């Protein structure tokens, strides 16, 4: 079967582009294009329409990329006479593509003139019905055989389909991305604040404890220490006398020796912090790290099973 541009005279291509603009979000659009062209006396198969879509898209992207290069001339658009038409159709996508797109497919005919404001929501259930005012419908003869996509943005991702309803999961409490150490500490503070509101009896109170402090019952806290606010101390941790800790996590089995000062730090499992040590600025100790006495660590990220024998005045990774 021949699929050359000789088949596509100007009038046919104009009709084709008008169909594309109208049904860009409709599944199996090539079938719709073919049917519409046949109604207007242009005999074009579904395969011919599919290939034409592919070729026009490729030509558009080629010209668009050329225009985006530094020093390019606007006259480049003249090499592709349908550029403006394709740009109005294809250049409507968001700058940043979403990770997931929620959408619905209508299995019945959609009114060509849906009422505005048809999107309804229920906050408690976290459910929203598909917005029919944003749907693109074929005529009656097409809608019987073609599902109509209702998408929340102009993209091709159609991943989540639940009948004609868009569903969300209701999150109770708070949500925090803790992919980085500084975010972990922020999430820890949020968690402690939630405990203050929901289960304040789990937080440690008394002399030497400030604000929200969570201490495992098996941890040992020495005399004249000041702990908090926003500190979590894990199981089996030993904090010797005169230690100051704020906005830190001290994990299981770690030891902080006397008169050390820690702020915005993560002390890993079974690590040991020596006497008169100062650590701050999101210093992170991996598992089984030893920090010797009287050192200063500023934003150090120490990999597991390392021994630190000198101060780290500037943030860096110790491997």
UniProtKB/TrEMBL annotation:
Residues 210-318 form the Mannose-1-phosphate guanyltransferase C-terminal domain. It comes from the Eukaryota. Pfam families: GMPPB_C, Myb_DNA-bind_4. The keyword Membrane does not apply. The lineage of its organism: Eukaryota, Metazoa, Chordata, Craniata, Vertebrata. This is Uncharacterized protein LOC117542234. Gene3D superfamilies: Hexapeptide repeat proteins. Keywords: GTP-binding, Nucleotide-binding, Transferase. Residues 8-89 form the Myb/SANT-like DNA-binding domain. Coiled coil: none annotated. Residues 107-126 are annotated as: Disordered. GO terms for molecular function: GTP binding; transferase activity. The keyword Transferase applies. InterPro entries: GMPPB_C, Hexapep_transf_CS, Mannose-1P_guanyltransferase, Myb_DNA-bind_4, Trimer_LpxA-like_sf.
């Amino acid at each position: 079967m021949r699929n050359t541009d000789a088949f596509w005279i100007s009038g046919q291509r104009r009709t084709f582009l008008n169909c594309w603009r109208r049904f860009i979000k409709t599944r199996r659009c090539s079938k719709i294009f073919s049917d519409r062209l046949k109604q207007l006396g242009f005999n074009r198969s579904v395969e011919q329409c599919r290939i034409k879509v592919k070729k026009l898209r490729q030509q558009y992207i080629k010209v668009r990329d050329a225009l985006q290069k530094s020093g390019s001339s606007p006259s480049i658009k003249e090499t592709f006479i349908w550029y403006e038409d394709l740009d109005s159709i294809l250049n409507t996508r968001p700058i940043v593509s979403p990770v997931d797109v929620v959408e619905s497919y209508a299995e019945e005919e959609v009114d060509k003139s849906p009422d505005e404001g048809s999107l309804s929501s229920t906050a408690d259930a976290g459910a929203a019905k598909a917005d029919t005012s944003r749907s693109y419908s074929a005529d009656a003869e097409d809608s019987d055989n073609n599902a109509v996509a209702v998408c929340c943005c102009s993209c091709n991702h159609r991943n989540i389909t639940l009948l004609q309803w868009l569903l969300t999961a209701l999150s109770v409490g708070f949500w925090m991305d803790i992919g980085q150490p500084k975010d972990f500490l922020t999430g820890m503070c949020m968690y402690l604040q939630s405990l203050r509101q929901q289960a304040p009896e789990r937080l440690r109170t008394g002399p030497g404890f400030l604000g929200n402090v969570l201490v495992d019952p098996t941890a040992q806290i020495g005399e004249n220490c000041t702990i908090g606010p926003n500190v979590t101390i894990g199981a089996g941790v030993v904090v010797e006398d005169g230690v100051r800790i704020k906005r830190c996590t001290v994990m299981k089995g770690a030891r902080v020796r006397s008169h050390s000062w820690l702020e915005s730090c993560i002390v890993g499992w079974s690590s040991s912090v020596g006497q008169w040590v100062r650590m701050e600025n999101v210093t992170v100790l991996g598992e089984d790290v030893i920090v010797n006495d009287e050192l200063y660590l500023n934003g150090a990220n120490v990999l597991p099973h390392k021994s630190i024998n000198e101060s780290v005045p500037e943030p860096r990774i110790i491997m």
